[in-house]
Design a protein that fits this description.
443 residues; alpha+beta; Immunoglobulin-like; Purple Acid Phosphatase, chain A, domain 2; 2 domains; eight-stranded mixed beta sheet; six-stranded mixed beta sheet; 22 strands; 20% helix; 30% strand; disordered N terminus
């Protein structure tokens, strides 16, 4: 379990000795690329200042941050797995608020992931969503693309970090390229800001990351051309190799594909990504557990015609989309036909089981081979954690069944409640995780 026993002092310092923002540090520090023995810390400055990071139980370690202005970053290595460290960043005369970073857990330990997307446009909705997510105390979170409305506009990225900056100081975020983040296939600002793990792909627009016993494959079907399996694109070749190596890894219990535009859509006038749909048999063959995306600004959960689960969580702040009336459902399976060009008979139908027009995010709680997933909505003006509406328990190799009432199932968000039957069954292990999560940070 992650050792967070030293973190209450950090919280108290923040409460009793407020820290104001600095002039030179204009973004960050923020966390990227969490692994068991390393993590990346990024920041941006407005005056060309050199930066260092001080980290450790007593801030006894010092590392220089490098990069072309305005960006600064450092990869801290040789860390202990499942361990939290205090840190702050110094750029010139400016010092960031003290925070903490935590390395990824081992494959045997429980952990929490949050996934959502499309945070552009409505800054108030985006802020309320981030406040709700902070209450969930995730270990890592993913944004499935369209972080901003115009990826070429520095002011929009400034606003993005104004909203997410406090959470990003303590919790690493892994991004997906959305159509609004790129321009003519280029992602200069996105690429500068985010230090994603490039070890497997060699590029920053698609990559993979292992966290605990789960492997997340991040695709780019916006700035790049994933194509169909037979197209043999660079990204497609990488994806095929990544799927095979992940499937062969005995330490991985779960494999997820994260991408901006999903295989299917229930928005009038859209059909989803046809090229991605043609990967669905390969995904099932090589053990992908679900395809999770944004792009459509609402919530959808369903299955491809071959049983592959998919989820759309694109309610991060962009204008909400209506769900086609024929497809609207809350717990009852509906068959949906894909409109437009159908290149093969198997592409004609898919199933949806839950749709909702509301700002939303996903909470995924991993405990061994069991995964509890809960979709939560954040209506305008809502405070605190999101309101659960579609929760289910997923066990490897079994088709997940929804909770028809929309209530949280065992393990779905219950780490903060401590009242579910799952908490009783997990006993002392569960209570230890709960206690240490509460110590991690106070929001």
């Amino acid at each position: 379990m992650i050792n967070r026993s030293h973190l209450p002092a950090i919280v108290l310092l923040s409460v009793f000795f407020p820290l104001t923002s600095t002039a030179a540090i204009i973004k960050g520090p923020y966390l990227q690329s969490p692994q068991q023995h390393s993590i990346t810390v990024d920041a941006e400055v407005d005056d060309g200042s050199d930066c260092i990071i001080k980290w450790g139980d007593n801030l006894e370690n010092t590392s220089p941050m490098v990069g072309e202005s305005p960006h600064r970053e450092v990869r801290i290595k040789s860390l202990k797995a499942s361990t939290c460290y205090r840190y702050h960043v110094e750029c010139g005369a400016d010092t960031s608020p003290e925070a903490s970073f935590c390395t990824a857990p081992t494959s045997e330990e429980p952990f929490r992931v949050v996934i959502f997307g499309d945070t552009r446009s409505d800054h108030q909705a985006h802020s309320e969503l981030i406040d709700a997510i902070a209450e969930e105390n995730p270990d890592v979170f993913f944004n499935t693309g369209d972080l901003v409305s115009d990826g070429q506009d520095e002011d929009e990225w400034n606003e993005f970090f104004n909203i997410e900056g406090e959470l990003l100081r303590d919790v690493p975020m892994m991004p997906v390229v959305g159509n609004h983040d790129e321009h003519n296939g280029e992602i200069p600002i996105y690429g500068r800001l985010f230090s994603v793990p490039m070890e497997s792909s060699g590029v920053d627009n698609y990559y993979s990351v292992t966290y605990g016993n789960a492997h997340f494959i991040i695709l780019d079907n916006q700035a790049d051309n994933l194509g169909r399996p037979k197209d043999n694109t660079s990204e497609g070749q990488w994806l095929e190799n990544e799927l095979q190596s992940s499937s062969d890894n005995p330490a991985l219990d779960f494999i997820f594909v994260l991408v901006h535009e999903n295989m299917y859509s229930v928005k009038d006038g859209r059909a989803g990504d046809e090229g991605l749909r043609l990967w669905r048999d390969k995904f099932v063959q090589l053990g992908v557990d679900a395809v999770i995306s944004g792009h459509d600004h609402h919530y959808v959960r369903g299955w491809a015609d071959n049983g592959l689960p998919f989820v759309v969580s694109g309610g991060g702040g962009a204008p909400l989309y209506d769900v086609s009336e024929d497809f609207a459902t809350q717990g009852q399976e509906k068959d949906v036909s894909v409109w437009g060009w159908l290149p093969e008979p198997g592409d004609k139908q898919f199933k949806v089981i839950w749709t909702k027009k509301e700002h939303n995010y996903l909470v995924l709680d991993f405990q061994g081979k069991t995964l509890d997933i809960c979709a939560k909505e954040v209506p305008t003006g809502h405070t605190g954690k999101g309101i659960s509406f579609d929760c289910w328990t997923y066990e490897k190799g079994q088709k997940p069944e929804p909770d028809q009432k929309g209530d949280e199932k065992s393990g779905c968000g219950c780490r903060s409640q401590g009242t579910s039957s799952g908490a009783i069954l997990l006993g002392g292990v569960f209570l230890a995780v709960l206690f240490r999560r509460k110590l991690r940070r106070s929001r």
